[in-house]
Amino acid sequence: MQTCSPQDLLGPLNDVERKNAPEQLFVAGRIELFDAGRRVSVVGTKKPSPEGIARARALVKALVGRRMVVVSGLAAGIDAVAHTAAIEEHGHTIAVLGTALDDCYPPENRPLQERLVREQLVITQFAPGTPSQRTNFPRRNRTMALLTDATVIIEAGESSGTLHQGWEALRLGRPLFLMESLTKDPSLHWPAEMIRYGAQVLSRANLEAVLDAIPERTRGELAF
Asked: pTM for the full model?
């Protein structure tokens, strides 16, 4: 395990980023992967549909094909699918945890977390021994939005915690993309609201152009 600040990874922060950044980060794994390409968060519901899983896997394949780094939160559902698909596609993936490195939630993802520590990169703002509690996860989402160049929401209901990351991405000025299927679900009201605040729709037709246009912020110097 190593410790660093967000500035160590990202370089100088603007006022909004600084206000929303944790003071310290704890990292385990291959720190060089943080600088291996544009980082894109792939997030969504803990209980995805078969279609949502397929969309997540297809997106991850496209990201890896562009040498982008797949970032997610190691939660059940879409998060675990994103990490696993990146590994299967021989790409890079980073997990941003809502627990300390010596803990794991959900417990069934511990083998995946251990593999990511060995082969990929795991980051958390929670010091070893920090109790796992529900309030950790919105804070994790804010940090994940900060550490990535863009966020894509695959599938999420009206009360999904994933929405928190969407709003944090918009607050931080990071591109936020919603899968087109979300905008076609009449039971969902949040996609239209996020679109009003700047979220963009990601479809099969515009996928290549959108991914190629994701900006890459200036890197910090990784002094490890």
From this structure: 0.94
